[in-house]
């Protein structure tokens, strides 16, 4: 590693680790999220083969945000008041800096981008990134009547960047029943189907063909959150008792599964520190290209079925790495729902669902597991192992946050490369300057359905939401009125896309719709 002396502050990934605590394992530990993050960090230190020497050099610990801290939901068994310091305490370290990141599935890749830059600038020498989720353990304890104690209040300063959840919330959307990710993504997915002109059946099979290779990858991954069957496209696409509706067009096998116990960690250091603590050359991985961008608010996007921010970010990161799509040996596209993959991999980069390079190295969020904001940490950990094993190869990780709201990309390779101080302001300014649509919050009159979803609870339809356009091109949002089972049945019986509706607003500022025949 003598060549490292040429650029001592070049940031490098030197260790990765993961942890899993399956309920059905004979070695089940009933770990908390902090326990899982700490175990993943121990594995990362072991991976770099110099744990004792490196522990003392860590000057910052940075953690992603658990779902409990992201959404501000009550923690039934308590939680840490200072998650980074809880993990550090388990590792026996007390770094001068502890940082608690904002939420979003993009955050692990954003953190790699940020702290590589800060190491390159000489601000830090060695940084531990980590996170964990114990959602499966928590829900199992609630279901079985167990009592756990995950509350702790460790000492130490922390830079708490807050959850950032308010950035994802739009009051008009919430008022009309867009209450969770499955509803927002279903609207985006059906908008994409409308553009492609596909029937419900054909589009469902397309989603199934996209995700079947993900399930097959997860089935062979020992770090998956559970034993995964190798589903066929038809088994993923067909609604059955075991594959119930969540939000049209998604049955439950098509959506991220957050009931997991998983942790992941990444160690980043300067080349100088890596050399001084004796990291073997074959362990060192470089970030060749990266980019990040934020999309317009959900209801303001001219095309609900596409995210220009995600697509441009992927292209820019590849360009910065000095390669083409054909040069990339492995991919991992964030896969909370099919459109998060197809928007970038299929529609922008021109890949196919059966690309022999595969579109995931983990198995994806519905099959490997969806540990909240920390999934991409697992993807990066897996990608580092892939490019280490294939000298000269490049791997792409795409990390998505919100409702196709934020996207971050990293290109990894074991080939040495000097650090470049790339900034994303110009890309963001260009995206922000593009025309947006302002939805009419009190629309009344006739219009046509642009996209829709029917939200179900345990397979039973509860209400439908539509986005539409008036004859003047105005965007509106509406939902079915309470107990309007007739409209929901009509939507189930016949494809609603493009159908004529009449919309009116009630006293609470909620727009409702019902169908009209053309010419009415």
From TrEMBL:
Thiolase-like protein type 1 additional C-terminal domain boundaries: 427-506
InterPro entries registered for this protein in UniProt: Thiolase-like, TLP1_add_C
Keywords of this entry: Acyltransferase, Transferase
Similarity comment text for this entry: Belongs to the thiolase-like superfamily. Thiolase family.
Cited PANTHER family: ACETYL-COA C-ACYLTRANSFERASE, THIOLASE-LIKE PROTEIN TYPE 1 ADDITIONAL C-TERMINAL DOMAIN-CONTAINING PROTEIN
Name the UniProt record assigns to this protein: Thiolase-like protein type 1 additional C-terminal domain-containing protein
Organism per entry: Acetobacter sacchari
Taxon lineage: Bacteria, Pseudomonadati, Pseudomonadota, Alphaproteobacteria, Acetobacterales
